[in-house]
Specification:
This protein has about 300 residues and is α/β, with parallel strands linked by helices. Helix content is about 30%, strand content about 15%. It has two domains: about 100 residues, 3-Layer(aba) Sandwich (Rossmann fold); about 170 residues, Rossmann fold. The strands form two sheets. It has a six-stranded parallel β-sheet with strand order 7-6-5-8-9-10, sandwiched between helices. Strands 3-2-1-4 form a four-stranded parallel β-sheet, with helices on one face. It starts with a strand and ends in a 10-residue tail after the last helix.
Length: about 300
């Protein structure tokens, strides 16, 4: 066989998970076949030794002539989010994906490969006197003309309480996109190049993040993160490596009309308001996860 072509429809986090799938494919089935990736986020795949080429889905010059016409080629285009195992929350996305591709998953984890220069730049750019804590409260694709609510977002009120407790121990850096909510008094950073974001994750010491690309990047670098889950998708999208904090309330979507094969719409909706209160997490539990010596003050 000349080539195996894997198509990936989805965001950064899904592409990071796909690196674990490709690792399993390379190890168990296509040891010598050249693997080609088609993705909207080719930056995730740079320097990955398991693949031969990666192409942006919207930029494929001569792709048919080079990889399809007259070639012995296998096209892998399974959608793990549509698998019964994923929808019914029976297995992790990576495991469900491997099962759809008929390859055994044996704990292969995600991988991101940075260059020495990328790591050097991150070290020099983010120099701090205290340990660096990355905070992520919002995710998804941001459209300034159509702001959405995302059920996976971290309530800013609770985030502010945690920051107030942690600010003396950590240099806190808030990761966000332009137009997403910021927190008063907290330095934030935006990225147009996700490779810079990956390098920052590699550089940082602690993480308080939502279920989005950063938690997957942490797993790729073997870094433990504190991940907050308003909706418990830890089995399908989480990692045992992390300290997963699940909201202490039932799922009470006030607008579930758009829910199809899951409890929420993956891209968010302007009217999506999943909880009747922002007080959904145990704040001391989150702080304890980030500070080993933290002792909550008992109420008098």
């Amino acid at each position: 066989m000349d080539y195996v072509i894997l198509t990936i429809n989805g965001g950064i986090g899904k592409n990071i998970m796909a690196t674990a799938v490709v690792k399993a494919l390379r190890k168990k089935r296509y040891k010598k076949t050249k693997i080609v990736i088609l993705s909207s986020w080719p930056q995730v795949w740079l320097n990955n030794p398991c693949i031969f080429r990666v192409y942006n889905t919207n930029a494929v010059p001569y792709f048919y002539d080079d990889f399809i016409k007259g070639k012995d080629v296998k096209i892998l285009s399974s959608e793990p989010y549509m698998s019964e195992d994923f929808i019914q929350k029976n297995s992790h996305c990576v495991e469900a994906w491997c099962k759809m591709l008929d390859v055994k998953h044996e704990e292969e984890g995600p991988e991101i490969f940075l260059t020495t220069r990328e790591m050097e730049i991150a070290k020099n750019k983010f120099q701090t006197q205290k340990p660096l804590l990355l905070l992520q409260t919002s995710g998804g694709i941001h459209n300034p003309d159509n702001p959405v609510s995302w059920v996976r977002d971290f309530p800013l009120g609770q985030a502010s309480k945690i920051i107030e407790i942690l600010k003396d121990n950590y240099e806190i850096l808030h990761i966000k996109q332009d137009g997403q909510p910021e927190i008063n008094g907290v330095q934030f950073v935006t990225f147009s190049n996700i490779r810079e974001l990956f390098a920052l994750v590699w550089r940082a010491d602690k993480f308080l993040v939502i279920d989005s690309c950063v938690q997957h990047a942490c797993a790729a670098f073997g870094k433990r993160a504190t991940v907050v889950w308003p909706i418990d998708n830890t089995k399908t999208l989480g990692y045992e490596l992390h300290d997963n904090i699940i909201a202490n309330t039932d799922h009470r979507e006030t607008h579930s009309i758009n829910a199809l094969f899951g409890e929420f719409h993956i891209d968010g909706w302007p009217h999506e308001c999943p909880f009747k209160t922002d007080d959904i997490f145990d704040v001391p539990k989150i702080v304890e996860s980030l500070m080993d010596d933290y002792k909550p003050v008992e109420a008098k």
